[in-house]
Amino acid sequence: MAKLIAEMEIESVTMELPDTKTIRLKWPAGYDVEFKTGQFITLYWPLKPKYKRAYSLSSCALDRGAYEVTVKRDGKMGTSIVDWAEPGDKMMVIPPTGLFLPVFEPPGKHLICIAGGSGVTPFRAFAREATRRKLATRLTVLYSVRTTNDIIFNEEFRQLDQENPNFEFEVTCTRLAEGDAWTGRRGRITPEWVKEHISDLKNTVFYACGPNALVDFAEHLVLAELKVPKEQLKLEKWG
User: Fold this and answer.
1) pLDDT of 47-90, one tens digit each?
2) How far apart are CA 26 and CA 29, in angstroms?
3) Side-chain half-sphere of 233: how many Cα atoms within 13 Å?
4) Do domains 6-97 and 110-237 have the same CATH topology?
5) Residue 143: is it exposed, middle or buried by C-beta count within 10 angstroms (0-12/13-18/19+)?
6) What class is the 110-237 domain?
């Protein structure tokens, strides 16, 4: 069956960082699509139908009535959205698809999510759903950024960390200047740091989203070093 492509109005925009913008796309009247947290939508401008770009949803499946995507200034589409997209603009939306889904059922799993840069956006959706549903699922986000000014959704993640005893949000910074006041972790995500968070390997599901190098690191760690079955690993490369 062909997917329903709908024209949606940008209801609001939020500048998360100087180069990163969240747009909220309002569903038109009569639009009611079932989808899952962790999926992505494909966008294109009405007058540029040949140029399409897929973006992970940064909102979750409980957020009905609109889609949210968080876009970094990158490539033609990302640059046009960050620099020019405004409330009232229209975009064409191909409905959600994809298999980068949180394993909330059966209960008892621990989701370790490794993210770099804008690759953290689907994990905001994971954390939102787990918190709102008051799930017992453990969820850990290990997030690599250049500096403290590059943390996307910092305030919301910290709030969710406070609300949800099963959610943990940890950040490491790779390019802080000497003498910076940051008291958190520095350097890249390492195998040792990931392993510190594993308590029951058999019931752990690993996720990685972000730059190719980060995702390749996670894949090697999980499959080659930890020797975890492929079924416990989900990857999303963003180039």
Assistant:
1) 999 999 999 999 999 999 999 999 999 999 999 999 999 999 99
2) 9
3) 17
4) no
5) buried
6) alpha beta
